[in-house]
Specification:
mainly alpha; 4 helices; single chain; about 0% strand; about 75% helix; about 100 residues
C-alpha cells in the first residue's frame, strides 16, 4: 500500500475530526461557521469513502489515537480552548458516516 494513499486517508480523517470537534465544542464561532464545517466534513467523508479499503481502514484503526491527538492539537491552537476530550468521543464508524454529526 502506497505511503501517498496512507497520508491522504490519514489527512482526510484528521480533517473530519477537526471539523466535528469545532462543531461540537467551539460555540463562539458556531453561528457563523457551522454550515461550512458540516459541508467540509461531508466532502471529506465523500473523499475518504471513495478510496477506503479494508487495509486502509486497518491502518486508520492503528493510527486512530495519534490522528485524534493531532486533530486536538490543531483545534486547541485555532480556538485557544482546552476543553476537548482526551480520548476521541467518536467511533470510526461515526466519523465515516456521511450523515452523522454530533449533537450538543
Amino acid at each position: 500500500m502506497g505511503r501517498e494513499r496512507k497520508n491522504k486517508i490519514e489527512s482526510l480523517l484528521r480533517q473530519i475530526i477537526i471539523h466535528l470537534l469545532l462543531l461540537e465544542y467551539w460555540s463562539k464561532e458556531d453561528q457563523y461557521n457551522a454550515p461550512h464545517w458540516r459541508a467540509e466534513t461531508t466532502e471529506f467523508r465523500f473523499q475518504i469513502n471513495g478510496i477506503l479499503t479494508k487495509n486502509l481502514q486497518k491502518y486508520l484503526v492503528n493510527r486512530f489515537e495519534l490522528i485524534y491527538q493531532n486533530s486536538v492539537k490543531y483545534d486547541q491552537r485555532k480556538t485557544e480552548l482546552n476543553t476537548f476530550p482526551q480520548k476521541c468521543p467518536y467511533s470510526l464508524e461515526q466519523l465515516l458516516d456521511e450523515d452523522w454529526f454530533p449533537t450538543k
